[in-house]
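Message: I would love a firmer grasp of how sequence relates to backbone shape in proteins. Thank you; the sequence and its tokens follow:
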Amino acid sequence: MPESHISFTHRAPSASDFASLRALVGWTNPALPIIQDSISSSLFWVSVYVQDKLIGCGRVIGDGAMYFYVQDVIVHPNYQHMGLASKIMESINQYIAANCPSGSTVGLFAAKGKEAFYLKHGFELRNGQDLGLGMCKFI
């Protein structure tokens, strides 16, 4: 697909489009009102479209002061391996550079097997030796 047909925006997608994209990559979704609340609470969005079809996204969430988290970097399976995820991360890194004060922390949880991708974009592994391993709790 010619790159001229692909557009990037810093607006959040609709809850239904976001849920559909998440489902396409095998992620579980909560109810749409919860997704909408999450979308509205985000600090920054990158949404990628072909015409009016959402094919990729990424966002930054957090408190906007000390803690920032890269979340939901997703590319539609039919559009993977075109460099779109890297462009999403470049935009996110620009936001981080402009908006995260010195001393703040930017974190993320990489999907299994995607760690090398985030290493290329300036993130480091938490190997458990200096800082402990990352952990999470699913509800």
Observations:
- The chain has one domain: 3-120.
- Residues 84-99 form the longest helix (16 residues).
- The two ends are 39 Å apart (CA to CA).
